[in-house]
Amino acid sequence: MTTSTRPQNPAGDPRSAAPVQGYAGVAAARATELSKVYGQGETQVVALDRITVDFRQAEFTAIMGPSGSGKSTLMHCMAGLDSISQGSARIGDTELTSLKDKKLTQLRRDRIGFIFQAFNLLPTLNALENITLPMDIAGTKPDRAWLDRVIQTVGLADRLKHRPNQLSGGQQQRVAVARALAAKPEIIFGDEPTGNLDSRSGAEVLGFLRNSVRELGQTVVMVTHDPVAAAYADRVVFLADGRIVDDLMGPTADSVLERMKSLDARVRTS
Ligand SMILES: Nc1ncnc2c1ncn2[C@@H]1O[C@H](COP(=O)(O)OP(=O)(O)OP(=O)(O)O)[C@@H](O)[C@H]1O
Ligand SMILES: [Mg+2]
To answer: Hey, what domains does the chain have and what are their CATH numbers?
Structure first.
């Protein structure tokens, strides 16, 4: 199934029978003709080339593609962490390019959750303090029951008093996941959120993201190289050379792998 034959009405998607209703088709984030160019002249790199894509509310989207295809750049531009060169990037109805620094900082803090490897934890704070930091900064109180559930799920209950340098890489990653989920943001962007985890903790985190989409209407967009991880998503968007080259609904690990192979073959023969 390609983009052109994918049902435009989400009712055509068997997964629309999920318990969360009322979001059908509403975009939590949207890129329109979004381009991102780094550098100038000979060193110029077109990292994103007129990308148009909707990330619908209460949908879990995986972004896949070869190294250098623009996945991280797309996450950064959509999350307001990097400027865009042309086109538009929206979170809900808010056009990111229209925002001055202060408003953009507020939007990132109040409406977006991040699970980025580059988003380091603060070394002087313990795990729990790192998890609640965005809410502490915003002056909001965490929903205690939800916070406990998040902490249990990522398996950090006995590490809450540890500082990042007393945690393994995978545990630090779990703190980052818990931090993103704790405030129930409008949308969560993850750049290989389970990349540092062993397969069991990875599966737990992915299952948790999956459930937060199904049960709470959380919107999640996640970059991954792993077809098994992508199969937790409702949809996979494939990038190559800064463009969207394919789009797959209801992925399984096998169908993702198949699609990756046929895209590879297409690239080799073109
Ligand atoms: N700050 C930057 N300055 C110049 N070029 C950059 C910068 N960031 C990324 N690029 C280039 O933009 C392109 C897309 O990079 P990006 O990091 O988005 O790829 P990716 O798909 O996330 O790759 P990977 O799977 O390796 O993480 C690459 O060619 C990269 O070299
Ligand atoms: Mg990347």
So the answer is: 59-80+98-269 (3.40.50.300)
